[in-house]
Amino acid sequence: MTASSRQLMVIGAGTMGRGISEVALRHGWRVHLVDPDAAQRQSAQASIEKGLTRAASPEMLDPEWRRRLTVSADWDGIEPSWVIEAVPETMALKGPLFTRLDQEFGPEVWLASNTSSIAVTEIQGVARNFPERIGGLHFFNPVPRMALVEVIAGMATKAPYVAAAVELIREWDKEPVVAPDRPGFLVNRVARPYYLEALRMVDDGIVSLETCDTIFEGVGFPMGPFRLMDLVGIDVNFAVTESVFTQTFYDARYRPHRLQQQKIRLGQLGRKSGRGFYRYD
Ligand code: NAD
After folding, report:
1. With respect to CATH, is domain 7-179 assigned 3.40.50.720?
2. What is the number of the ligand 1 atom nearest to the C-alpha of 139?
3. Closest by alpha carbon to 8, among 137, 146, 141, 154?
4. What is the pTM of this model?
5. Taking the alpha carbons of 30, 33, 38, 39 in that order, is the dihedral positive or negative?
6. Is domain 188-273 given the CATH code 3.30.360.10 in the classification?
7. Nearest alpha carbon, ligand 1 atom 4
């Protein structure tokens, strides 16, 4: 398949996929959102609708945006210029997707993963045809509000990809920062100790989690570590820590914490499941 201009395909209609879709629609792009889970497709459409219609200046929004959005279980017949993958943080899912994308789309179609922590070079390793047009576009949650996007070049990524990615992110009124393909890139490398030290302090009985959030928010952090883990998803956060820990060949600074693992075992994943470190009605 070939590329058509300003057409984005987003794979995965979860927290991040729906946010990325909303931003692209706001900037006049055609968006094809793909997810095999019907309930996720439905709730993503409702969430995009809510996001776009409560925009600060709705008069700026092209009322035709609904016609520019298609939501489907698979991508047959779609001809995007950009593909952004936002499925759960495991190579077991991302690997086969990138192998298939690389086989089905020509080298003029730019492919990106929204991975928080998997090495982009590892993703390139499953694409035998054109790994040079694959990179990372790491958006932050909630996507419509967060300005920063890390642009990650893997070992095989070529300069034109990085230039195209920077241009795309600027077109969407966001701030691109080119980051190296190292464990945790830039943001997650510095954010891991923030979460992990907070988990250790609470586990050691030094402070309650509520007080821990209060102290950080009191000195100017927008969210304390526990409220932030609930927003991100404890499962997502834990997977990122595990990935950084493994990729640093088990650097103790990034050792995952049991408290998060226990929450996941109980299905208490944060806001998305109604309960995490806090309860949500
Ligand atoms: P999520 O669990 O909210 O959504 C994932 C979606 O992918 C689900 O709707 C699921 O049905 C769908 N999916 C699963 N397999 C699929 C497949 N084969 N094809 C198409 N869709 C499939 O996850 P999320 O929080 O949106 O995270 C997605 C990615 O973004 C992960 O790599 C994560 O690390 C990264 N990320 C997450 C955050 C965050 O705060 N949640 C921030 C930055 C980056």
Report:
1. yes
2. 43
3. 137
4. 0.91
5. negative
6. no
7. 14
